[in-house]
Amino acid sequence: MGVCVAIVCNGQLPRTRRPLALLSSADFIICCDGALNALLRRGITPSAVIGDMDSVSGKVLGSFSGKVVRSDDQETNDQTKALHYALSVWPDVSQIRILGASGKSEAHTLGNLSLLMEYERTLGLSSRRIDLRMVSDWSEAFAVFSDRIEFGTVPGQKVSLFSPDNSLQMHSEGLDWPTDAVVWDNWWKASLNRASSTRVRLILNHPAPVLVILDTVR
User: Fold this and answer.
1) In terms of DSSP bridges, do strands 139-152 and 170-173 run parallel, antiparallel, or are they unpaired?
2) Which of 163, 19, 4 is nearest to 103 (CA)?
3) Which of 14, 121, 136, 160 is at 20 to 30 A from 211, Cα to Cα?
4) DSSP assignment letter at 26
5) Using CA atoms, how far apart are residues 199 and 212, in angstroms rounded to an integer?
6) Is the Cβ–Cβ distance between 51 and 71 less than 8 Å?
7) What pLDDT is recorded for position 135?
């Protein structure tokens, strides 16, 4: 069984059962810069903290017993740096859960979500059997780069689909509203659909990046 890594970003930390369980069950925790403050306040000591450390006081860093990975690279954000660190340090990683990547800033939320598609496109995580998901109190998001996508759902669960490829045509099964006529030229076009079965199947006219967001079932 592979290693499970939690990456904690400096957004709104989760408070509900599922994301907190993912955090507590992770084999290793990497936090991004300022998230260290919140984790230590909760009594959680991560394995490593990554970033330029501009959001962490020297006093807090001094009390941290894990590894500090300082990076001033402005071409990537701390979430991306943490992902690459996880892949390089734990080559047998099979699950990566990103927490605290939303809330506080709409710009950071959109950027972090869109990066899921970039990771899949450039790193091919699915083909490497690495399950990467962004989890919050409200939803779970993952990305696929393929011409066929299938995932489990709960009937009635809200399902949102996004893609930057406006040449895409997508046939869907297991959703209340078919996606065949969707023109992928704006974010809202296939958002807040609803699952009609326990499996959703998507068939694309060519391989393309697709971001899937499943709302948490309450």
Assistant:
1) unpaired
2) 19
3) 14
4) -
5) 13
6) yes
7) 97
Instruction: Tabulate helix, strand, coil % of the chain (nearest 5).
Output: 25, 35, 40
Q: Can you give the pLDDT at residue 70?
A: 84
Q: Which two three-digit tokens encode residue 212?
A: 């899937």
Q: From residue 38, how far is each of 12, 59, 156, 164 by CA, in Å?
A: 10, 14, 35, 34
| Residue entry with tokens 């399950």 | 131
The sign one gets for the Cα dihedral 21, 26, 32, 37 is positive
Residue 21: predicted pLDDT: 94
Residue with tokens 């779970």: 140
- CA-CA distance, 149 to 161, in Å (whole number)? 11
pTM over the 0.90 mark? yes
Largest CA distance in the chain: 56
Mean model confidence pLDDT for the chain: 93
Has residue 160 got a pLDDT over 90? Answer: yes
Contact 128, 4 (CB under 8 A): no
Cβ count near 44 (within 10 Å):
16
Mean pLDDT throughout 130-159? 97
Sequence-distant (≥ 6) Cβ neighbours of residue 171 within 8 angstroms: 178, 179, 180, 202, 203, 204
